[in-house]
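Deliverable D4.2, example record:
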Amino acid sequence: MQYFAILGLLPVVLGAATTTLPKSAGAVATNKPIAVSGSFDGGMKMYDRNPKVCQGQSETGEADAMFVLEDGATLSNVIIGPNQAEGVHCKGTCTINNVWWSDVCEDAITFKQTSGTSYINGGGAFKAADKIIQFNGRGTVSVKNFYANDYGKVARSCGNCSGNGGPRNFIFDNVIAVDGGVICGINTNYGDTCTITNTCQDDGKNCDRYTGNSSGAEPTKIGSGFDGTYCKGSISTSC
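Output generated by the structure prediction step:
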C-alpha cells in the first residue's frame, strides 16, 4: 500500500453543490490502494486502479479501494475512476473535500470510525447501482453541498454487519439527488438518525427505516418518510 501525506496543492472547493463532473487535470493509475495519513490533495486528477478490480455489486473490501484513509486524514480534489471497486475507506474519522466518483462500483465510500464525526464537503457521485455512502462504524457522518446522480441510496447504515449496532447519525445539508432513491436508510432499533435540510430529491424520496441485525440476514424495512424521531427535516422536489 502506498502512503501519501501531501499538503496544499490546490485550494479546497466548497460552497453550493456542483452538478457537473469536473474535467480531469490528468490521470493516475495504481495496482493497490493509496493510503493517506494526514492530508492528500489530488490536484483534480483522475485516480483509478489498473488492473481493474470492479466486480459490479459483488462484495469486495478495503484491498479493492482507491484510497484508504487513516484516522483524522483528509482527502481533497480527487476524481475517482470506474475501475476501482470500493472508492474510499475511512478507518477512523475523516474529511472528504471536493471528491468525485465518475462511476461508482460497489460503494463510493465506507466509514468505519468507532465514534466522532466525519465530513463530506462538496463533490458528487454518478452511477451507483446500490448506495454511495456505507456507514459501518458509529458516530456521525455530515454531508454538505453534495451531488448524487443515478444511484440506489445516497447513504445507508449497515443493515446486517457482524457486531452491528449504533447509533449512527447522518446529517445532510444542501444535497442535490436525482434519478435515484432515498437520501438515507437507517436502523431505528440501533437509534440511528437522519436529518435532512436544504436538500432536493427529484421524486421527494427521503428516508427509509429498517430493523437492523448482526446475523447477515436481509434487514426488515419498517417504514419510509419523516417521522420526527429517526428521520427528521424536510425535502424539496425542485432540483
